[in-house]
Amino acid sequence: MKTKKPLMTINEKMKEALVSADELPYPIPENWVWTRFGVCFRDRTSSNKKLPQKQYEEAGKYAVIDQGQQLIGGYTNDASLVFNGMLPVIVFGDHTRAVKWIDFDFVQGADGVKVFQPEQNLNAKFLYYWMRIIELPDKGYSRHSKFLRETYVPLPPLPEQKKIVHHVESLFNKADDLEAQYKEAMELIETLPEIIFTKAFRGELVPQDPNDEPAFGLLERITFEKEKHETAKVEGTNRKKHKQSV
User: Fold this and answer.
1) pTM (two decimals)
2) What DSSP designation does 149 have?
3) Which position among 28, 39, 51, 156 has the lowest Cβ density within 10 Å, counted as fewest Cβ atoms?
4) Which residues fall within 8 angstroms of residue 127, CB to CB, at 6 or more apart?
């Protein structure tokens, strides 16, 4: 008889979530932690609720989000295909490496779409901006999500995540003003996102607050919630099997 593999304890999950010292990409503030992609995101990609491109409409009730560079690839009126998970989500183009922030009802395009849901204890916009600047190898029309899953996330305490998002968006607004007012500033504006993001994810954009809870505590809560979720799934499966056997 095959024995079931026991669920990992919180301490085991924490150990697996943290990045060892020899893996650190670059220094970060003391109250930040390096963690792994899978700790911060859940894959909500649907395997059966997808719309092929040939079935896109020019107008419709629901937007189709695919891996193209445009935010919306097309439209449909098929309500049965609408994503039914929690919003917002981040859509990643497996072939194109496009990253999209989606906070409205949508239908998943059929080819090369990955849907990632940020963990609830984290600032979703922070993770979205982080995904926009990570450098992934260009493998043409190969799949890139495998490289995305191997990346490390520099995770600050939650209050600082919110501050970083506020500062980034404030700087973007200023860049928009510059674009509208000064055509000669276009070259500078095009380089702003890279400069802003680089500083943001190195802990250089906002002052460090010593009163903030260290990110390790935040990470611990996330792993605890994941453990509860997995335990509930196992118990639900066991109850279902018990009812079927009675």
Assistant:
1) 0.72
2) T
3) 28
4) 40, 41, 90, 118, 153
